[in-house]
Amino acid sequence: MEEERTHIISALVLHKPGVLQRVAGLFTRRGFNIDSITVGTSEKEGMARMTIISRGDDKVLEQITKQLNKLIDVIKVRDLEHETTVKRELCLIKVHSPTEKIRSEVIQYAGIFRGRIIDVSSETLTIEITGDSDKIDTLIDLVRGFGIKEIARTGPTAMSRGIKTM
Amino acid sequence: MKGGQAIIKSLTDAGVEVVFGYPGGVLLPLYDVIYDSNLRHILVRHEQCAAHAADGYARASGEVGVCIGTSGPGATNLVTGIATAYMDSSPILALAGQVPSHLIGNDAFQEVDTLGITMPITKHSFQPMKAKEIPGMIKSSFYIASTGRPGPVVIDLPKDVQEEEFEPEKNIKIELPGYKPTKKGHPLQIKKAAKLIINSKKPVILAGGGVILSESSLELLKLSETIGAPVTNTLLGKGSFPEDHELSLGMLGMHGRKTANFLVDECDCLIAVGCRFSDRTTGNVDEFAKNAKIIHIDIDPAEIGKNIEVDVPIVGDAKIVLRDLLDMIIKYKSNITTDEWVNHVKEFKNACIPRMTYNDVPLKPQTVIKEIFDTLEDDTIVTTDVGQNQMWMAHYFTSKHPRTFLSSGGLGTMGFGFPAAMGAKVAKPETDVVAVCGDGGFLMVCQDLATIKEYDIPIVICILDNRRLGMVAQWQKLFYDKRMSHTHLGEVPDFVMLAESFGVNAERLERPGDIKDCLSNALKSGEPTLLDIIIDPEEILPMVPPGCGLTELVGEYKVERENLEEITYHEKSQEKVGD
Questions:
Q1: Is B502 a catalytic residue?
Q2: Which CATH number fits domain A86-158: 1.10.760.10, 3.30.70.1350, 3.30.70.1150, 3.90.420.10?
Q3: CA–CA separation, A139 vs A117, rounded Å?
Q4: Is A73 in Cβ contact with B178 (below 8 Å)?
Q5: B262-276 CB burial, b ≥16 within 10 A, e <16
Q6: In chain B, where does the domain assigned CATH 3.40.50.1220 lie?
Q7: For the segment B490-530, what is each residue's pLDDT rounded down to a tens digit?
Q8: Any catalytic annotation for residue B447?
Q9: Closest Cα in chain B to A14
């Protein structure tokens, strides 16, 4: 059994109804795993870019890319190398912060992680933070003690460093 | 022009002459156009048969077969046929009706998510929301279905789109930026393969359905004869290489011929062409061709390395790759000596010709297959159902030409044989078509006797009647302690009376020697005929239990000439039970 790794798969797809279902359905049917999937418009008109984080050994990854390539609506697929890829995720955290003391602590933590406070109520603060998944995990752990009301994460989106494009 | 008219015009422009369908509420606009058109529409009696008939049409002719079903239950009835075509890479176009676009998602009457349901079993699918999209989508569908690795395409047609007026464009362009099937194999890979083949002493070729789809039988024959490699085939590869050729080994796999299973085990180089190494073909993958370097030629890159590891993969169209490969081999070495291996193959083949001659009553299925084979012309198209009837045919019947043996391999769909034969006969009216079915499978689709009668489609249906779900019963006998749970089908119906109630000629046959005259008369009569052939329900087919290597046969492999030295094979314990 080969070693299981986390892979960052970037796919350029036609931006039209049903494409996400085709991709997600393929993963389910073939027993591939999806940690996260993000989709949005790309630099090309009528095309969207998907970033899929998946785990598996090299053989599984080869099947994933080949099967994705077989989908008619998929234009290009690449397995991005961790070392040469920038990867960012957006996360919103609503923290229970009923007292001034807690609010000030939360704001400090957010600051250290270059997060921003984007909403305040008498009971809560909402932090916006961008970064790689480890950094976000660390901040979540730090504020967990205050009581987390809600978390919304986008999952990572990614692209190669430098002039290389796909 | 209305959407419905555009559908029919696009089909006609694509060269379609016949469609198999069943109307319904949301298809009224389309069927209203069909009423006036020159397109031949065959009204089946169940949508599943429309899909299988389109599939049979495609397999027999190489052209895209077209079927039509209405929304909801019409579409879900097509599903089995679409999945069958998908698993066997058969090019069909399924047109499904859909509720009007403003009702989609409201759980309207006869609404079902056809696109969602068929997504995993189609090569691609479309749903026009404007009538003007129809011509491009239909043109693209034919292109997608018939090129690369062929497969089914579904178009989901909302009722209002069929009715919508639009101004058609002159030039219909296919815009599929994400679809570029590879045709030519990589020269370096071909070079590697050529070297491997030249240096091998004991090469074997494994021919799959891809040889038939790419129409490369001639190239295959040349390669085989040049390098002295015997050819075994998968179920779908049956007919890709003439099985009466001295280098043919017959089918490989769970129910394969002994020659094929043992020589693949022995070979030092396996050249697999257009096959996907299904579990039924390979047996235990760790044991499969364990002495061989494997070359795998396939047009679908995803098949390479999916089920087994290969040494030299070549992605491309089998016809082009085989041609290039042969050129390369000849370039390296013009005279290849093959006598030693070829003689060994011939000797081994001769020692295990499967026995087919029996005088027993009830009839042995082997005898039935032999009599059917002896009666038919070489170009006769035979279809099979699924189960013992299929494996008996695959094992004992000698196919000589591509597109003459049609069977549901991947999905294993009971009920395929009869409607597929119907479709094949419509595609090839001048060719004899015989469906060899089991009684169980035939009963699943028997209502379409009405179709062959009404449209005068003169096929002959041979039912191998053992009143059993024979294959399941065989497994119960071998692996489940003879506990025959729900595999006896009882005494009804009387298949002769059943056929006659549809106005179809029928006869019951029970004795050796009966088949030849009846079958040949039936074919000459030019009328649809059913032959109810009573066979021995106890007969078992030698097999490789799941999880075992291909040489670990269970059951006695009876050879034709008793005086020949019995070749030993391992009796495997019957503990292993799998799927």
A1: no
A2: 3.30.70.1150
A3: 13
A4: yes
A5: bbbbbbbbbbbbbbb
A6: 187-351
A7: 999 999 999 999 999 999 999 999 999 999 999 999 999 99
A8: no
A9: B178
**Calpha distance B64→B57 (Å, rounded):** 8
**Active-site annotation holds for B110:** yes
Is a pLDDT exceeding 70 seen at residue B561? no
Chain B's closest residue to A60, CA to CA, is: B306
Read off the tokens for B73. 């239950």
CB contact under 8 A, B116 and A21: yes
Third-level CATH fold of B187-351:
Rossmann fold (3.40.50)
Is residue A66 within 8 A of residue B302, CB to CB? The reply is yes
Beta strands in B299-456 (DSSP E): 312-315, 381-384, 405-406, 433-438
User: Best mutation site among B86, B98, B119 for testing chain A: the one with the most A CBs within 10 Å?
Assistant: B119
Annotated catalytic residue B47: yes
Please state the three-class secondary structure of B544-564 as a single string.
CCCCCCCCCCECCCCECCCCC
Measured between beta carbons, the chain B residues lying within 8 angstroms of A74 are 178
Class of domain B365-534: alpha beta
CATH 3.30.70.260 fits A5-80, yes or no: yes
Q: Which of B159, B258, B349, B370 is catalytic?
A: B159
CATH of domain B3-163: 3.40.50.970
**Cα radius of gyration (chain A):** 19
CB-CB neighbors (< 8 A) of A62 in chain B: 305
Q: Please tell me if the domain spanning A5-80 has the same topology as the one spanning A86-158.
A: yes
In chain A, where are the structural domains located? 5-80, 86-158
Query: A26 to chain B nearest CA, in Å?
Result: 7
A22 with B305: Cβ contact below 8 A:
no
pLDDT means per 10 residues in chain A (166 residues)? Answer: 85 95 94 94 95 94 95 96 94 97 96 96 96 95 96 95 87
Q: Which residues of A93-111 are buried (b: 16+ CB within 10 A; e: fewer)?
A: bbbebeeeebbebbbebbe
ipTM value, please give it: 0.91
B175 in reach of chain A (CB within 8 A): no
For chain B, the average pLDDT equals 95
Q: Are B338 and B228 in contact (CB under 8 A)?
A: yes
Task: Cite the residue boundaries of each domain of chain B with CATH code 3.40.50.970.
Answer: 3-163, 365-534
CB < 8 Å & 24+ apart, contacts of B498-504: B498/B446, B498/B449, B498/B530, B499/B449, B499/B461, B499/B530, B502/B449, B502/B450, B502/B453, B503/B453, B504/B449, B504/B452, B504/B453, B504/B528, B504/B529, B504/B530
Tens digit of pLDDT for each residue in B233-289?
999 999 999 999 999 999 999 999 999 999 999 999 999 999 999 999 999 999 999
Q: Is B1 among the catalytic positions?
A: no
